[in-house]
Specification:
This protein is mainly α and 271 residues long. It is built from ten helices and no strands. It has one domain. Helix content is 79%, strand content 0%. The longest helix is centred in the C-terminal third of the chain and has 29 residues.
Length: 271
């Protein structure tokens, strides 16, 4: 019972963060489950990928009603992101990342999140750092779409993060998207890619012969209700909060998660 209550709380926090920042909820769920339930990176990634689909649905609804999603952009981002997501999941299933190698996967997770925080912090430090420009759908060529979508899918699939933590800064840096549009586009992209990632990752987890203390489906079932509620609330704030404050909150969340994951993984690898 206590574990169920804890997971409901984790789902709520993940949902608020996911809806508010357009990053899915894995960036909160995976570290939280690691700290609260013990290391089992592949299991948590499998569960989180299922939750991500349900988590972003309320957020997508808000963004559609606000007219914030650039349909022309996401129509070019989603196809290459889907293929890249599968590649990323398959990479995470390499033997190098199994057993004690799971700590390497956690270290990569933390290092990547820290890099994203650095990029966003540098953007904030510049004049107009909250981002006000926008890329028209007509100007987004397929090569540029692939350049943004492939890292989004590969890293999302490999680390189980849905891809939003990549898609938001990549859209801002290389497509000139304002923050709210990047968040909305990211949520819509995750709605498509998370289904594919969840199927491939859960199939791999269930057939790899490894022993896991819990079922990814049970974990997902406990996380989904509050994750959806939190996402609904978080997404409603995206178009109300000042962009700079939103970006500062995003950076602070990324830095905290990165620090905890890097410290935990490094303590295992250095012993």
């Amino acid at each position: 019972m206590n574990e169920a209550i804890v997971l409901l709380g984790v789902g709520l926090v993940a949902g608020v963060a996911g809806g508010l920042f357009g990053i899915g909820g894995s960036i909160v769920m995976i570290p939280a489950m690691t700290w609260l339930l013990g290391p089992d990176q592949h299991l948590y990634q499998a569960a989180a990928m299922i939750v991500n689909f349900f988590l972003v649905l309320p957020a997508v609804r808000h963004h559609v009603r606000a007219g914030a999603i650039d349909r022309g952009v996401i129509s070019r981002l989603i196809p290459p992101a889907l293929g890249a997501m599968i590649v990323g999941v398959l990479l995470s299933e390499l033997s190098y990342f199994k057993g004690e190698g799971e700590a390497v996967l956690r270290l990569l997770f933390g290092a990547f999140v820290l890099a994203c925080a650095g990029v966003e912090a540098a953007r904030l430090a510049r004049p107009g750092g909250s981002g006000s420009g926008g890329e028209s759908a007509a100007a987004l060529t397929w090569p540029r779409a692939v350049f943004v979508a492939v890292p989004t899918g590969v890293i999302g699939g490999m680390l189980g993060v849905g891809g939003g933590v990549v898609a938001v800064p990549m859209q801002r840096r290389f497509l000139g998207m304002k923050l709210t549009t990047a968040i909305a586009n990211s949520s819509a992209t995750i709605a498509a890619t998370s289904i594919v990632g969840a199927v491939v990752k859960n199939w791999a987890v269930l057939t790899d012969g490894a022993t896991h203390a819990r079922s990814p489906f049970l974990l997902a079932a406990l996380l989904i209700p509050t994750a959806m509620a939190g996402s609904f609330f978080g997404a409603s704030l995206v178009h109300r909060l000042p962009r700079r404050k939103l970006a500062i909150g995003f950076v602070m969340l990324l830095m905290y998660v990165a620090g905890r994951m890097i410290h935990g993984a490094a303590s295992v690898l250095l012993t």
